[in-house]
From TrEMBL:
PANTHER family: UPF0102 PROTEIN YRAN. The keyword Nuclease applies. Gene3D superfamilies: 3.40.1350.10. This is UPF0102 protein SAMN05660420_01547. The keyword Nucleus does not apply. Keywords: Endonuclease, Hydrolase, Nuclease. GO terms for molecular function: endonuclease activity; nucleic acid binding. Belongs to the UPF0102 family. It comes from Desulfuromusa kysingii. SUPFAM superfamilies: Restriction endonuclease-like.
Amino acid sequence: MSQARLALGAWGEDRAAEYLRLQGMKILKRNYRTPVGEIDIIAQNKKYLLFVEVKTRRGVTFGSPQEAVGIRKQRQIIRTCQWYLQEHKCGKLQPRFDVVAVLSAGNGNVQITHLDDAFSLST
């Protein structure tokens, strides 16, 4: 992956984490890596433990950012979530899988779309 794409992805994850904080969520982990995969952001609110995939784009030429989270990626996130749940005590928090799409308009404007419960464990 090119340095420009890595930088864009990191920039988008920063925007997404700040957005989630402003929505009252506590960020627990960023870029959580295991042998089975990676999760961009793990956050929590009063009821849920959120496993968040962040997709960042400069435009929609190749589809919206959230369209890039296909079934294969969903399954990888679920496996990584299961790994996390085995390592950490999460109390009564219910796992939830969200997608945060960050679209950079190039003129400094940023559009963030948050898809709550974007997919489920049965995916």
